[in-house]
Structure formats: structure tokens, C-alpha cells
Amino acid sequence: MLAIYKKELRQYFTSPVGYVFVAAFLAISGFLFSMFTVQYAVAGDDYDLGTYYTVMMFVCSIIVPLLTMKTFSEERKLRTEQLLLTAPVGIGSMVAAKFMASYTVFAGTFLISCSNLFILYKYGEPAGGVLLGYTIGILLIGAAFVAIGTFVSSLTESQLTAAIGTIGILMLMLLVNFLNDYIDWTWVRLLTNWFSVYSRFINFTYGIFDYAAILYYASIVVIFLFLTVRIYEKRRWE
Amino acid sequence: MVQIENLVKRYGEIYAVNDISFTVNDGEIVGFLGPNGAGKSTTMNILTGYLSSTSGTVRIDGFDILDDATEAKKLIGYLPEQPPLYLDMTVAEYLNFVYELKKCSLNREKHITEVCDVTKISDVYKRIIGNLSKGYRQRVGIAQALIGNPKVIILDEPTIGLDPKQIIEIRNLIRMLGRDHTVILSTHILSEVQAVCDRIIIINKGRIVADERTEEIARVVEGKRRYVVKICGPQKEVLNALRTLDGITYVEMTADRELDSTGYLIESEQGADIRKPLFYMLSENKWPLIGIDAMGINLEEIFLSLVEKQDSLKGKRKRTQATASAAKEG
Predict the structure, then answer these.
(1) Which residues of B touch A (CB under 8 A)?
(2) Is the CB of residue A192 less than 8 Å from the CB of residue A179?
(3) Contact B200, B214 (CB under 8 A)
């Protein structure tokens, strides 16, 4: 398992994918951060981290798929999955190792982007608890996104299909509860609210540490990784 | 070492592998032979645990490939039809990754160096796999299978796409591996199994049509002996005399002509040794025999006759069934 984890990490940074992801993430987060803090302050308003993190969540839904698109599709296309599946490593460990590697790149990059926050400490007195809430929120959402991307990547041989498919699913999960204004049935609204990644994140932006949300994101990770394992087992049997 | 019992793999209505059973003993080199699409790769993929069989069992040194997958897989080194190479890695990175993946406990540096020496890839050790030629890639693929010194080595078409010199090198390598490993290799090149294997298993349409030791396989088939003889003498008369000789069923002049000699291809009846009568007949006529070449029955012929036999058996069975049902109806 450790071997596959190390290999995946190395492959991110021996190809452009890893660098493109890190660069894009840091550039976009840096720009958005300055927009919602420094520029607001210049205009005389208070800074607005809630909006920053919400927008970052949408940004993640577009660039996380770049990170996960090749996870399984490339292995399948190059037939290297035969090496992994005939090695004395279980399918579960293989999926977990690949998920962890993608997540390490995501979480590492996000934590680097958190260095932006020092500016707030230098020129103001932000509420540490709220910042911690946001950070944990994004880390959890990222885990859910990476797990979904990993799953979609196991469905196809094409990186492009995997990326677009993942973006589609993530967008749907983020936007589904915006439809609520047009839906009369309460139970449907409850369902879309439950399903929506966005509605769960809102609490974090209010500075509320929501255990139900943590459970929700953790369940998404477990469910999608489990489905990925099932996809591989099914493919063996068919 | 490898036990396969009643292996069946079905894709919908199609049987890719249909009730195959065989056992491979310790230290044996077994050639798995069959035309494209016969079920060779499918069988190998099941043996190595990449695919699951529809029914039947595979045991590697007693470990079931499904129930004790991890233990069984530890004993196998596998080169699939397309070598599973990461093109963006160097050979060094790749082999080190495989070493870790297989959880080897051998001395890492020493072991990898040995494998590279055996497969002759030491000179490209630091290069990126994507930039290597087909021959080198194939050998890196074989090196990958050897990492961890597994007891069973399974090679799917190991010489495909290589040039003649590389093919000879790989065959020598396989023969050497056979000394202390059990090797199963598949191929559709018949001379390859003849050159390398102790035993040949021929499969066609998912079924085993022959399972024999290499030197015995020729005997399984009713083959005719063939010779190319060179005789000095008047062509027409020689030809007629050969045709009337007992035991000879077929004579043909070949294009091989020197000043006064002509080559003839002759085929004898089954079981008849025509060499002595041929010699006496020629010496009676004072036609010197200046060359005789026995043409071994080649595997192509064996193969075709086996496969045809299987098909005609099936045909017959169908026909008898048809006549039987027709008789019933009548």
C-alpha cells in the first residue's frame, strides 16, 4: 500500500499534472483571498472570509478533477493495472493508497494556501476558531471531492471523460439545493439539502463546528471508495 | 506447483476458456500454445488472479488464487501480453517500485542488480522507460516479473515484437530461468515452444487439444516422414523409379539443381522406413545418392492436424446427432 502511495505521489511531480494543480490552486486562492480581504478593506468594508471559502469550494470542484482524472483511467489504458492487481496487494489497499496520494497533494496545497491567513493576523485580529472551522470544512470537502473523482476515474479509460464527469457530479452536488426555491415538496427539499455539499458547508462559514457534516463528508469518502473497490471486483468477474 | 481444475471463463454466451484442467510440476517449462483468440491470455489472467474464473479452481503451491490471493500472488511473477510499464518512470524507479509493491525481503540493491544483469538492461537502468525501444521495454517487463524471485513465472507472449537476435536471447533467458523456476509461457509461434519448453499444452477455442512432452508430441499425430534427397541421374527415369518404390506415397522434383544432380522431395507411408530400399534401388541403377535430409514434422502441421481433428470430431458428432434425430423423426 505504501509502495503505491509513494508511486502516485512521485508520478504527480514527475509529470506536469502536480505542478499545474499546485500552481493553479495557489494562484486562484491568492487572487480570491486578496479580493475578499485586502480589496474589501481598501474599499472600507470588512473582509469576508465566508465568501472566500465558498468561492474556493466551487474552484475546488473544477480543479480537483484534474488531480483525480488519471488515477485509474491511465492505469487501465496503459494496462499497468495488471501489475497492481496481480501483486500481493488487495484491491482495497490499492484504492486507499491512490485516494491518499491524491488527497495528500490536495491537502498539502490547501495548507500552503493557508499561509495567506498570516496577513489577517498581522493587520487584524481574526477569530481563530472560525478560521479553524473553515480550514477543516475545506479539508473535508476536498476529501469528498477526491473520493468522487477517484471513483469516476475507475469507470473510464479516458482522462478527459473522467475529468468532465467528475466536474459534472461535483457541480450537481454543489448546486442541487439552489433548486429548492422552485420545489414545493418539502421531502424533496429535505433530500436535496441532505445531498448538497454546499448546505453542509454553510454551517462552517458561520463558524459552527458541525459533527453531522463531518459524518456526511466521511460517509461520502467511504461510500465512493467502496464503490471503486466494487467496480474493480465486478470487472474481474464479468 | 500450479494446479488448475475445470477452469471455465464465460463472457455472456461465449466460452473463452471451457473446462481446462492441468498441473504444472516444479521446475517445468510449459508452453501454452494456440492460435490468436484460443483463450491463452484469458487463462493466464485467471492464473495470476487478474480475472476471476466463472467456475473451477487455481492453486499455486497449494494456495487458492481467490481465497488465499495474497499468498498465491507472492509466488507469481507475471508478464502480461502488454508489459505493464509506467512510461514516465526510469527503469530504476520502476523496478524499485515493483520491489516495494511485491513486499520483497531480499537485499534490494543486490537483487535488482542481479535481475538487471540477467535481463541485460543494466545499460538503460537510468533511462526513462518511455524512451526505450520495444525490445528493451519487453525485457524491463520480464525483469519486473523476476523481481522477488517468485517460484512461478508466467509469461504471455514474451518474444512478441522482438527482432531475431533478441528472441534468441529471451529464449536463452527462459531456459535459464527454467532451472530453478516453474515457467509457463504462451505463444502462437510453434518453433518457440519446441526450442524452449519441456511440455506443450495446445489449446483451441478454449479447450485443451493436446498436453504432451515436447519430444513426444510428434508421435501423437499420425505424421508421414519426409525427406529431401539429392540424386545424380536422368530426371525422368529417377522420378519414375522413385514413384514405383514401395513405401513412397509422394514424389516431387524440387528447384534444387546442380550440374548433374537434382533434388526430390519424397514422402513415405506411415511407419515405413524407406531409406534402405531407396539406397539399394539407386545403387542398382548406378545413380549416386549425394544427399539426404530428413524433414522433421513441424509443429505447424501437428497443430493444424490436431485442431482439424477437434473440429471434425465436433462436426461428426453434430452430424450423427442430426442423423439420429432425423431417424427418430422418420
Answers:
(1) 11, 45, 48-52, 69-71, 73-74, 76, 78, 80, 82, 84-89, 93, 97-98, 100-103, 144
(2) yes
(3) yes
ipTM of this complex:
0.88
How far apart are the C-alpha atoms of B78 and B96, rounded to whole Å?
Answer: 16
Residue type, B271: G
Give the single-character DSSP code of B212: E
- Any idea where the domains of chain A sit in the sequence? 2-237
State the burial class of residue A107 (Cβ atoms within 10 Å of its Cβ: 0-12, 13-18, 19+): middle
C-alpha cell at position B172: 536463452
Instruction: Express each pLDDT in A49-108 by its tens digit.
Output: 888 888 998 999 999 999 999 999 999 999 999 999 999 999 999 999 999 999 999 999
* pLDDT confidence tier of residue B218, bands split at 50, 70 and 90: low
Q: To which residue does cell 508421414 refer?
A: B224
Q: How far apart are alpha carbons B275 and B252 in whole angstroms? A: 17
Nearest to B97 among A7, A85, A86 (CB): A7
Domains and CATH numbers, chain B: 2-220 (3.40.50.300), 226-295 (3.30.70.1340)
A35-44, A156-165, B239-248, B299-308 — which one is most confidently predicted on average?
A: A156-165
Whether residues B103 and A6 touch (CB distance < 8 A) is answered with: no
Report the alpha-carbon distance of residue B30 to residue B2 in Å, rounded. 11
Which regions of chain B does DSSP assign to beta strands (E)? 2-11, 14-24, 29-33, 55-60, 63-64, 76-79, 152-156, 182-187, 199-204, 207-213, 226-232, 248-257, 261-268, 289-295
* Interchain CB distance below 8 Å, A236 and B50: yes
Q: Which residue of A has its CA nearest to B72?
A: A88
| Three cell numbers, residue A141 | 470537502
Reduced to 3 DSSP states, what percent helix, strand and coil does chain A have, rounded to the nearest 5? 85, 0, 15
pLDDT of residue B114: 93
